[in-house]
Amino acid sequence: MLTLIDVKKHFGSKDVIKGVSLQIERGESFGLLGPNGAGKSTLIAMICGLISYDAGSIQIDGKPVSKHMHATKKIIGVVPQDIALYPTMSAIDNLVFWGKMYGLKTKMVKTRAREVLEVVGLTERAKDRIETFSGGMKRRINIGAALMHKPELLIMDEPTVGIDPQSRNHILETVKKLNEQGMTVIYTSHYMEEVDYLCKRIAIMDNGKLIASGTKKDLSNRLAGGTVLKLLIEKIEPEFIEKLKVLKGIETVIVQTSNEIHVHMETEMELVSEIILLASQLDVKIRNMHLEEANLETLFLQLTGRTLRE
Amino acid sequence: MKSFLIARKDVQIMLKDKKAFLMMILMPIVLTAILGTALKGMMGESKMPETIVGIYTVESSVLVDTVIESLSEEDLAITMKQAESDKQLQEWIARKDVHVGVRVPKNWGNDATRNRATVVPISGQESAATIIQQLFEAFAQSANIIASSTEKVMEQAIAVSMQGNPVQMDAMQTELGETMQAVIVEQQDYVTEKSIGDETVSAMQYYAAAMGAMFLLFNAMHGGKTFHRERQTETMARVLMTPSSPWSFLAGKFMGTFFFAFLQFTVFLIATHFLLQVNWGSNSLQVFFIVFFYCIAVAGLSMIVAAFTTDEKMADVVGSLGVQVLALLGGSMLPLTLFPAALRKIAMLTPNSWALDSFTSIMSGTDWSALWMPATVLLGIGILSILLSMVKFRRQVL
């Protein structure tokens, strides 16, 4: 359904998107992971036609977005990162407004607004002003506004930022249902677990580039080690780090803070004993140690040296 | 179509905004009431306070009768009350039945040193007494001029008759006296005050027009602020992600400001008419004709505020200052007639001065021909503002 071929964008002298290519199939639920400033929102803005791209091509159903802007916008529903609603207007008035902006006729727009209110679970608050809603409720109406015109492609830019767990669950369930009904979903987030729950295919983005993409299984296979050893030590000695890196079975060593290092490794117990022995030989005092299964976040850390929420 | 949706939404939001309602609708009505009442008299619509003059004349004469008759004219707001006796006049003064008492002696006007009239004010009416005294003196002096002029002419006539030509002395004297008298009485008509139309504009009318013109300007600031708010809250980006162009968004914002300004003025006009009895002139169509073009100018200025400010706070500061400067320069706070000529010329650059001038002209009963010029200027301001803001917007990423 959506194809991006070597898409580039720069603002002034800064390259914000550095040649992104990806393919999303109809009915798919696609996750776009990346920290703040990775370029996710810019990429979305280009897909929606909000900003132009400098090079490459973005196509929906084989048609370039830049040449079929009007038709493209009609089939895309966008849930912005911010609550892009009018706070002094009621929930239903907001939905009616956005429905009409997508060309819905006056006769059917109210009926559709009530349907959407039911989908987002806010029927009883239809006539209340948005400004009286909780953060989670606002987020749900924010999603509802994007659903008014029954889009074929729903793009959600971090739709669960700063909300309570109950609203987050409601949103995730709603998105899952919509996808099950056939709607194509692009879900961007820096919450690994949300993407993990909703999406079959995932792309990880950093610094304007896709640094990894594929199914969850593909990405798991790319993980450098099945286990991460998190060491809390009194003081990091450069010699200790260097000697750790050359130990057999260790993939990478990442210095997290002045007294925390993460060791990605293939095997477990034998290596752990070797690490403890090495520390003792170099007089490095280990205060705490913790073993974890590697996941998407670990992969991101492994690929970029940073955490998703940095 | 999309522009109308955006405009309708903006008006809807404004109508729900209690703060904006107070600022845009209630404030101008309250200020009109306060300023119109407080500055009543400044505009020349009020009459002099009524002064009751008690007068006793020891001996009736043509001059005294003329004085009484002249001072009794309606325009002067003086009531002449003739006493039967000196005693009665004293009683009136004692009882404060009159504001000023005047005793006119025998042969008043003939001999200034011996036969002076006496003017007695009651407490608090000293200034009225001074005016009455000056009026009597002016009449006496005029009478003396007439008398001496008549005397000179008569002397010349006698000289002519001595040469054998018969002259009708009595008839001539009477005719001369009457002519001179008429000249004195006619003096009041040499200078006259006239408004643009047939009607005089009262302070309440002026300040209704001035406040209406001023508070409509606040829409320029508000329009600019809502533009930035939409940009900041991403609603603008969301609108642009719908099948609408950036220009239809801008057109919607322009129309939203225009419609609200028009609605605001209509409410203001109705409220001032029914609550403050402001007469907006005999032709409402003329008023709405100017309001239409003024709203175009104001909506255009809102685009300027949006284009040349960076955020809502800046739009607020720039807009507030701009409105106050325009209000001051445009005569919304003080009538332009009080301004020096240079400032009056600068005022012609402000849209509110054109609107205000047009409103007051309509109130005084002007005709359509006088309104084409201000309408063209206001339309020009609106178009120029739109063009300037479009140039600026083209350079920005909407």
From TrEMBL, chain A:
Transmembrane segments: none annotated. Residues 2-232 form the ABC transporter domain. Keywords: ATP-binding, Nucleotide-binding. The keyword Lyase does not apply. It comes from the Bacteria. Gene3D superfamilies: P-loop containing nucleotide triphosphate hydrolases. GO terms for molecular function: ATP binding. InterPro entries: AAA+_ATPase (IPR003593), ABC_transporter-like_ATP-bd (IPR003439), ABC_transporter-like_CS (IPR017871), P-loop_NTPase (IPR027417). The keyword Transcription does not apply. PANTHER family: LINEARMYCIN RESISTANCE ATP-BINDING PROTEIN LNRL (PTHR43582). This is ABC transporter ATP-binding protein. It comes from Sporosarcina quadrami. The lineage of its organism: Bacteria, Bacillati, Bacillota, Bacilli, Bacillales.
Automatic annotation (TrEMBL), chain B:
It is a multi-pass membrane protein. The chain crosses the membrane at residues 20-39, 204-221, 254-276, 288-309, 321-343, 371-391. It is found in: Cell membrane. InterPro entries: ABC-2_transporter_component, ABC2_TM, ABC2_TM_bact-type. Residues 173-396 form the ABC transmembrane type-2 domain. The keyword Transmembrane helix applies. The keyword Nuclease does not apply. Keywords: Cell membrane, Membrane, Transmembrane, Transmembrane helix, Transport. PANTHER family: LINEARMYCIN RESISTANCE PERMEASE PROTEIN LNRM, MEMBRANE COMPONENT OF ABC TRANSPORTER YHHJ-RELATED. Belongs to the ABC-2 integral membrane protein family. This is ABC transporter permease. It comes from Sporosarcina quadrami. The lineage of its organism: Bacteria, Bacillati, Bacillota, Bacilli, Bacillales.
